[in-house]
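Appendix B. Raw example, untouched.
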Amino acid sequence: MKSLSIDIETYSSIDLKKAGVYRYAESPDFEILLFGYSVDGGEVVVIDLTSNEKIPQEIINTLTDDSVIKTAFNTQFERVCLSRFLGFPNGTYLSPKSWRCSMVWAATLGLPMSLGEVGAVLGLEKKKLTEGKELIKWFCVPPKHTPQITVFGYDNKWERFKEYNRRDVEVEMSIQARLSKFPVPNWVWEEFVRDQEMNDRGVLIDVELATQAVKADEIISEKLNAEFRELTGLTNPNSPIQLKSWFAKNGLDLDSLGKKNIAAVKSEITDKKLLRTLELRELTSKSSIKKYAAMLEYAGVNNRARGCFQFYGASTGREAGRGIQIQNLYRNETSHLAEVRKLVKCGAAESVPLLYDISIPQALAELCRTALIPKKGCIFYAVDFSAIEARVIAWFAKEEWVLEEFRGAGKIYEATVASMYGIPKESIDKHNPLRQKGKQATLACGYSGGVGAMRNMGADGTDDELKEIVRHWRAANPRIVKLWYALEKAALQAVKERSKAKTHGVEFNFENKTLFMKLPSGRRLAYCKPTIKENKFGRDAVFFEGVGMNKKWQELQTYGGLWAENLVQATARDILFYGIKTVSEAGYDIVASVHDEIICEVPLGTDVDEINRLFTQLPPWAEGLPLKAEGEELEFYRK
């Protein structure tokens, strides 16, 4: 036996969507109902475990045999659940080394991360049964789980459920067959294994802090909402429709109740009632408390939150967050973080605004990161690449003055302003307003961003003033500008000629109705069913089918800056995973990967300089890239 395709149907009283698969499988009432499998692509067999049928011992043996490749769609679910089925102690799991995920395989080719949607996009003859959601609600979700009644009283529905399980295995195998022309490189599967090991390890949650934060939020929310209702006379002032209408009646027309818009409007308001209403909107709309609730849901055995990361969750191959969404935790701004944390943790949140210049809602938001802690006898070492995207785009474009700055002092914001306006870099310190312009331009303009991108980075001024900054930045970075157009030209050529086109060490290749962008690492980004049309800038551009912002399969358009963004972010991702490889192979435990940062949980006294050195080792294909990282020892996570 060489391979095993698997799909299982399960029951647990734990909400899978809220708590994730690790907690789901830890429930005392967890069980596997159906086990569908195929050996080496043969006929699918469904084992009904509710009817005392047994999985053949030969199949059981393969689950722990690393010489047999096990495949499933979202294989983490099968692997974790089968670990529990096989009697592994909570917190330990089947090795991921011989498991492959057809969901990840689909994602590497730009396809959706849903079994049904992948089947639809590929036009498979056999598709996922549409009544699957109804059957899962009937048999897998409390309170309708009654196996005996199911078997004896709902035979037809149960038989359809077994057929649903069988069909999922068949669809999963059909996907494998269709994707077989584009195998995932072994080294990417090795990255997947390290991702799974990080997810299995999990990160420790300070449950006491999270619990006290939830309690504090309940108390302060009740007080703030009471004041909010009294001030506005609204039954539900948190309703955007009601609140915007109230503001309009009081002489303030708001386009949006978003954080940035509220902050901008507040600076112009003198009316005390309107100002307090805006403040209450800010205070009551913070979503941080949902993070604490997610932490408590995800905190499983040993209070560790597992399964917080999705390998290849973004089209560039970057990790995406799941559950707690660690990538989106609020940044820390208060200089009294440790003191505020102690007060909230001991149940004295009401003292925070009395002792420090910070509201309770703001304090709770900033403390979210600090609920991630190292286990006893350990510290966190968080190490983060410095300005990785600015370095990578300059490396691709061969923008030498930028590379030289990164090889030296690395003061890119000051150097950018100096290059833009022809002034000495030494004349610009952190307090010089020009430095902020340099920072905003560096962050906004690298992917052909204009006025809108500058405003998203916090830039003020008229459109004409911001256009002038963009013009100066482009004039100072001519090779980066050339990179945008060179990538756009090569992509167009590859699609028009159904051939290959190369530029700046990047290869575009049209193959089997797909455009591939081959990165220096050897990994490829995929753009499905490309065509050429006029884009929003009035130029010929490549359009392709992919997953849009609303997570729907749709037509998407490209332009030079977008090609550069995909290239740079994907390459930065490959450098990050190379760093993860070197650090992991040296025996250090990584518990989280957040954007361009890793968090290691290491024993007290560990030589953290060694971790930094390992993390910044250049991949063989990235010669000449001036890579740098900054690390910090932490008693709790912060940023």
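End of appendix B.
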